[in-house]
TrEMBL record, chain A:
The keyword Ribonucleoprotein applies. This is Small ribosomal subunit protein bS6m. Keywords: Ribonucleoprotein, Ribosomal protein. It holds the Pfam family Ribosomal_S6. GO terms for cellular component: mitochondrial small ribosomal subunit. One of its GO terms (molecular function) is structural constituent of ribosome. The keyword Cytoplasm does not apply. It comes from Hyalella azteca. Belongs to the bacterial ribosomal protein bS6 family. Gene3D superfamilies: 3.30.70.60. SUPFAM superfamilies: Ribosomal protein S6. GO terms for biological process: translation.
UniProtKB/TrEMBL annotation, chain B:
It is found in: Mitochondrion. GO terms for cellular component: mitochondrial small ribosomal subunit. It holds the Pfam family MRP-S26. Residues 87-121 form a coiled coil. It comes from Hyalella azteca. This is Small ribosomal subunit protein mS26. Keywords: Coiled coil, Mitochondrion, Ribonucleoprotein, Ribosomal protein, Transit peptide. Its main location: mitochondrion. Belongs to the mitochondrion-specific ribosomal protein mS26 family. PANTHER family: 28S RIBOSOMAL PROTEIN S26, MITOCHONDRIAL, SMALL RIBOSOMAL SUBUNIT PROTEIN MS26.
Length: 141, 251
């Protein structure tokens, strides 16, 4: 059973060859740790949301790989020490649950929505079914 | 001791042999002699000299016979009353014994009825218990059957999941990039960047791309959220857009 990891990193705004060299260096850390790369994607050169180390642009890369869990820390440490990278992220890939489009239901008035009807039903169920017994006046007298 | 006196010795031999001594006296005892008075038996004939004698009875006083009869009657009455009293006691005892016997019979009858009721109630409860146990057994069997079915389904699901995981792993292994092709793959990826951004309007039409305007895509090229091809994000084909942009740049 594999655990699929995703490594995303932003390379400084550099020429193509240098950018590819930096990316290659990051991917080699995975191979060095005994991992295998399954997918490499680039999101292109984009404007950064904020200046990072004096850079306003960066090249986004996404790499999916499989590696031993024990060696993940060494990969992280090696990638973290790379000065040409602005940011790096590691996540575990999990399968997406199938999502159904509920737009037509959400556009209805609230009372007709299935979620609201479910909430009303739950509130009705929480009410005590047996009412509290009335106070016996004769006993008090 | 010689019981015969000297004086009576001859007379005893001559007269009667069935006389018996009625009293003895030690007052005039001398030597080995004892004074004894003798009396003849009741049916012995009277003495010869008293053969013709008529016994004289003293006449009773006036009213004495009545008093004697009264006392006799009173005595009889007392005897009768005592007899009746004892008879009553006897009957009372007899009645109490009969009552005890009757009570014992009633207790026996009540015990028998109680036992019958208990047996009937036990049978009824046994039937109810058997019904309940049968119901519980049925429920248990149903539960076991359902759990077995659920277990089989779970085992089947886990087996399918395992097979699916194995298949996924095989597919993933096939997608592994060899070490010597990493540089080429990086270059290819750099040349063909992927854009996962897209916008959506109220009708569900999508506008892929970060900086795409609605007018950039013709209505026939707009993918919809409900399209099966757009189910997984990132599968949007941007080639028509790029082609359009290229045409626009050329013009």
């Amino acid at each position: 059973m594999f655990i699929l990891y995703e490594m995303a990193f932003i390379v400084k705004h550099l020429p193509k060859i240098k950018t590819l060299t930096v990316a290659k260096r990051c991917v080699d850390q995975v191979l060095k740790a005994g991992g295998y790369v399954s997918k490499i994607e680039s999101l292109g050169l984009q404007d950064l949301p904020q200046t990072m180390e004096g850079n306003s642009k960066g090249s986004y890369f996404v790499v999916r790989f499989v590696a031993p869990t024990a060696s993940l820390d060494s990969i992280k440490t090696a990638v973290k020490l790379d000065e040409e990278l602005l940011r790096r992220f590691f996540v575990v890939i999990t399968k997406n649950k199938p999502v159904e489009c509920t737009l037509h239901d959400e556009l209805k008035p609230p009372i007709y929505r299935s979620e609201v009807q479910k909430m009303i039903k739950e509130a009705d169920e929480r009410k005590p079914k047996v009412p509290y017994p009335e106070r016996n006046v004769e006993l008090l007298l | 001791m010689n019981l015969v006196t000297r004086s009576n010795h001859l007379f005893l031999k001559l007269a009667q042999t069935n006389w018996y001594p009625c009293s003895t006296s030690f007052e005039h005892c001398t030597g080995n002699l004892l004074i004894v008075r003798w009396r003849k038996m009741r049916l012995d004939p009277p003495n010869l000299n008293k053969r013709m004698k008529v016994p004289f009875k003293n006449p009773l006083e006036e009213g004495e016979q009545d008093e004697i009869s009264r006392l006799h009657q009173m005595n009889n009455f007392k005897d009768e009353s005592l007899r009746i009293y004892l008879k009553k006691l006897y009957h009372k005892a007899i009645d109490s014994a009969a009552a005890e016997i009757r009570e014992a019979d009633e207790e026996e009858q009540e015990h028998r009825e109680n036992m019958e009721y208990l047996n009937k109630e036990n049978k009824r409860l046994a039937a109810v218990r058997e019904e309940r146990i049968r119901k519980e057994v049925d429920e248990r069997l149903e539960y076991v059957m359902l759990s077995k079915m659920r277990h089989n389904e779970k085992a089947q699901r886990l087996h399918e999941e395992a097979l699916q995981a194995l298949q996924d792993a095989e597919e993933l292994v096939q997608s592994f990039i060899p070490a010597d092709r990493i540089a080429a793959a990086l270059e290819e990826a750099y040349d063909n960047p992927v854009d996962y951004n897209y916008a959506i309007d109220s009708k569900g039409f999508m506008y892929p791309g970060l900086k795409t305007k609605p007018t950039d895509i013709a209505p026939e090229f707009r993918p919809h959220l409900n399209d099966p091809d757009v189910a997984k994000i990132g599968a949007i084909d941007l080639s028509p857009l790029r082609q359009k942009h290229a045409e626009k740049a050329a013009n």
